[in-house]
Amino acid sequence: MTETTVVHLLRHGEVYNPAGVLYGRLPGYHLSDNGRAMADMVAKSIAGRDIVAIWSSPMERAQETAAPCAEALGGLEVILDDRLLEATNVFEGKNLVNAMFRDPRNYWHLRDPRRPTWGEAYLDVVARMKSVIDSALKAVPGHEILLVSHQLPIWIIRLAAENRRLWHDPRRRQCSVASLTSFTFEDERLVAVGYTEPAAILQKGNPLAGA
C-alpha cells in the first residue's frame, strides 16, 4: 500500500520592522499585529487537517507563527530545528536598498548572483531543507507535518524540487508572508507541489516584506 505524506512549509507572518532592515537571523524581530492576525488565520485554515507534528525555525517570528497553529491542532508541541533557519546574508542588519546600491564598497558581494556571493550558497540551503524534509517524511509517514520557515529557504527548495534553476529574481518569488507551500509524497516520491495563501486578505502587497 502506498502511503501519502504531506509536508507543509509555512512562511512566518508579517514582521514589525519600521526601519526596513534585512534582519535575517538577528534576534528580537517579532510579528506585527497584522502578522499575528495572519498566524491566527492560517491556524484556522489548517484546523482539522491530519497534521500530527509542527517543527519551526528558532527565530521568534517563526515560533510566534507556529504557536496558534499548534493550539488549533490540539496543543501540539512545537519542535525547533535549526535546519529551518533563514539563510545567512552579509547585509544582515542593514537597510537593503542603501547597503546594496548606494555604497560602492558592497558591490563585491554582488559579483555572482548565481551562488549567491552575498550569503549562504543556494546548494547549501537546498541540502539542509532537503534534510529536514527527509526527516519529516520518516517522522510522520502517512500523515501531514507543518514546517515553519522563511521565504528564501522555502522558495529555494521548491525550485530544486521542480528542477528549476536556483538563481532568480527575488521579486518573483511565490512565497508571500503566511503562505503555505505543500509537498505531497507517495512513499518518498514527490508527486505534487501546491501553494496557498490562507491570509492573503491581510497582505499589504509587498512579497519581500519580512523575509
TrEMBL record:
Cellular component, GO, one term: cytoplasm
Annotated TM spans: none
InterPro entries: His_Pase_superF_clade-1, His_PPase_superfam, PGM_Phosphatase
GO molecular function terms attached to this record: phosphatase activity
UniProt cross-references to SUPFAM superfamilies, sorted A to Z: Phosphoglycerate mutase-like (SSF53254)
Record PANTHER family: BROAD-SPECIFICITY PHOSPHATASE YOR283W-RELATED, PHOSPHOGLYCERATE MUTASE
Record's protein name: Phosphoglycerate mutase
Organism taxonomic ancestry: Bacteria, Bacillati, Actinomycetota, Actinomycetes, Streptosporangiales
